[in-house]
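Hi R.,

As promised on Friday, here is the backbone we talked about, encoded as structure tokens. Could you run it through your design pipeline when you get a chance and send me back a sequence?
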């Protein structure tokens, strides 16, 4: 009898997990690990969602217990599943984590689950790093199976329907699962999938990756106890996972290439230089190109933006600085007014300032399906700024820095970003110590991992 599709995929997961990461994969994985730790620390310090989630799970009324894992940037600990959830929110809440092709947020579910479980188990750095890579890999293969969905065709936010499975695979590796156990954990995780675009711009958006990390990890832990789920999640069937989340059909052949060359290398990922939804990076880049030609932003009469049809990016009246991360109007206005876009651009105070409110009223957005929304299919954004004297400034962004086919982000730029993020919490000497440990994560033993996580969680090195 031919094994089911799910069984074949899980055989490939087991086989892939036994092959050591080569030098190129290790270099990419270290960079992702550093970026994830850094943006998590900043997210926990600058946004309310991680702190509120931590308080929720520490409340006796919630009924949780344990202190097995560190909360990055919060100087606290929780049980393993709850820590994965809070850290998953912290990695994602700034919308500063890397973007993937096809689009999803694969790092936060995989890394948050790997960190929490790895710390609880006493795993070494290379085990945690490998778990993260495996969790990212299955998410990338699942997004490939979606048959090139455009943004307007998506029914659910991608990390909500691939993230739980990624976290289950990452956790399963650390627990030493065989193929049958992977299939069971994936089956449980399939019933934990969801995530609605309606919550973009709110704290709840960060919980799409947070619950993906936690519930995928929980699916693996339940499997460890003998709790059962379907072992054929990826197989065609009425009312299946494929039918639920893949409106163009579910290309199971895309899953059969699981393994090297890893998705972290091919097609790779985009490190973000701006803490905002990746669709807005096109607007930011175009606006920054126009800014040197504008002597006084107060002289702007109108701003016209023509962009791909990503429905969630047309937000003329952001409700908060957080909501502004998803607005083409706000991000373009921030770039035109300030000449830069960074961590300080997305506060409620910046949104409320008169210059921002005045320029938002002058911004017009047209979304069109004539422009592909897939990053490598000819996507672009056009910006036209009309000044009070009648002159026009036109710019176009075809690929933001770091995107596929654009000039890559350098290692030094990644480290500069990490310094900015870690500096929201750590003293400069500890910032450099944290960066160095992240870039050597694959060489750290269990004690070294604990030291790193203590630093990133408490803001200080342990005394012993």
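Update: got your reply. Pasting your designed sequence below so it's all in one thread:
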């Amino acid at each position: 009898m031919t094994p089911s599709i799910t069984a074949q995929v899980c055989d490939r997961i087991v086989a892939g997990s036994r092959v050591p990461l080569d030098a190129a994969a290790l270099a990419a994985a270290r960079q992702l690990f550093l970026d994830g730790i850094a943006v998590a620390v900043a997210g926990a310090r600058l946004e309310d969602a991680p702190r509120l989630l931590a308080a929720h799970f520490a409340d006796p009324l919630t009924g949780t217990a344990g202190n097995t894992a560190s909360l990055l940037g919060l100087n606290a600990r929780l049980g393993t599943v709850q820590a994965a959830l809070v850290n998953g929110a912290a990695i994602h809440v700034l919308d500063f984590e890397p973007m993937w092709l096809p689009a999803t947020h694969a790092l936060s579910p995989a890394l948050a689950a790997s960190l929490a479980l790895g710390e609880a188990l006493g795993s070494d750095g290379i085990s945690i790093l490998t778990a993260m890579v495996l969790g990212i890999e299955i998410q990338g293969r699942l997004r490939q199976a979606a048959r090139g969905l455009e943004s307007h065709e998506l029914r659910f936010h991608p990390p909500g329907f691939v993230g739980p499975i990624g976290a289950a695979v990452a956790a399963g590796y650390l627990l030493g699962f065989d193929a049958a156990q992977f299939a069971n954990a994936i089956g449980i995780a399939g019933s934990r999938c969801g995530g609605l675009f309606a919550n973009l711009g709110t704290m709840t958006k960060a919980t799409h990756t947070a619950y993906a990390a936690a519930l995928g990890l929980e699916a693996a832990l339940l499997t460890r106890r003998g709790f059962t789920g379907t072992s054929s999640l990826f197989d065609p069937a009425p009312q299946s996972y494929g039918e639920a989340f893949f409106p163009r059909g579910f290309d199971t052949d895309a899953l059969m290439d699981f393994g090297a060359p890893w998705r972290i290398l091919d097609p790779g990922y985009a490190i973000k230089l701006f803490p905002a939804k990746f669709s807005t990076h096109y607007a930011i880049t175009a606006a920054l190109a126009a800014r040197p030609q504008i002597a006084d932003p107060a002289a702007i009469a109108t701003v016209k933006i023509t962009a791909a049809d990503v429905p969630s990016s047309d937000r003329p009246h952001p409700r908060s600085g957080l909501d502004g991360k998803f607005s083409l109007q706000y991000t373009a206005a921030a770039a035109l007014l300030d000449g830069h876009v960074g961590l300080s651009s997305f506060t409620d105070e910046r949104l409320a300032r008169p210059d921002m409110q005045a320029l938002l009223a002058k911004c017009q957005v047209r979304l069109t399906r004539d422009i592909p929304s897939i990053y490598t299919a000819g996507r672009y954004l056009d910006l036209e700024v009309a000044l009070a004297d009648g002159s026009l400034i036109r710019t176009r962004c075809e690929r933001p820095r770091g995107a596929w086919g654009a000039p890559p982000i350098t290692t030094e730029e990644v480290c500069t970003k990490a310094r900015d993020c870690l500096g929201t919490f750590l003293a400069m000497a500890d910032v450099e110590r944290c960066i160095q440990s992240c870039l050597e994560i694959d060489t750290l033993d269990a004690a070294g991992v604990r030291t790193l996580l203590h630093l990133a969680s408490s803001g200080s090195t342990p005394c012993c």
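One thing I noticed while checking it: Strands lie at 69-71, 76-78, 99-100, 269-270, 300-308, 363-368, 381-387, 392-397.

Thanks again,
M.
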